[in-house]
Amino acid sequence: MSGARHRRRGSVIEREVVRALGVHAERYPLSRASRFRGSGHDIDIYVFGADEAPLVAEVKPRRFGAGFAMVERWLGAYDILFLRRNHADPLLLLPRRLWARLLERVQR
User: Fold this and answer.
1) Percentage helix, strand, coil, to 5, in the chain?
2) Residues 47, 103: contact at Cβ < 8 Å?
3) Helix or strand or coil: residue 44?
4) Closest CA to 107 of 64, 66, 47, 20
5) Would you state the torsion angle of the CA atoms of residues 93, 8, 35, 85, taken in this order, to the nearest 10 degrees?
6) C-alpha span between 13 and 62 (Å, rounded)
7) Radius of gyration for the chain, computed over Cα atoms and rounded to the nearest angstrom
8) What mean pLDDT is predicted for residues 63-83?
9) Closest C-alpha among 44, 47, 40, 38 to residue 56
C-alpha cells in the first residue's frame, strides 16, 4: 500500500473512533505531519467539557491485529487489563463497552 493510501486509511479509522467515543472528540489536524502546537497525536477527547484540556489519544490500526492477539487473550472476559513494565506507570486497556459505561457516570 502506498503512503497516501496508508494516510487515507488512518484518517478513516480515526474518524470512526471519534464518532464511536460518545463524547465530543476531534481528529488532530494532520496528526503526525504538522506537529500542530508541538504535538503529533491523533485525537483530542473532551471528556470533561470543551473548556477543560482534552485527553490526547493515539489510534493504532492493524489489518490483521498483529501484536494485539496476546493483549486480547490477556484481557479475555475481564473489564480492564493493566500492563506494567518494571519502574513504569501501568497502562490500562479497556473495551469500548466499559468506556461507554464510565462516560455515563462521569456525565451525570
Assistant:
1) 40, 15, 45
2) yes
3) strand
4) 47
5) 20
6) 10
7) 15
8) 91
9) 44
Measure the CA–CA gap between 63 and 45, rounded to whole angstroms: 24
In angstroms, rounded to a whole number, what is the distance separating the alpha carbons of residues 66 and 55? 26
- Going by the DSSP 8-state scheme, the letter that residue 43 receives in this structure is E
Residues for the chain: how many in total? 108
Query: How far is the CA of 77 from the CAs of 11, 28, 41, 61, in angstroms?
Result: 30, 32, 30, 22
* CA atoms within 13 A of residue 17's CA, in its CB half-sphere: 20
36-65: per-residue pLDDT in tens? Answer: 555 678 888 898 888 888 888 888 888 888
Cα separation values, 15 from 42, 63, 75, 106, Å: 10, 17, 25, 23
Nearest partner of 26 among 8, 45, 13, judged by Cα: 45
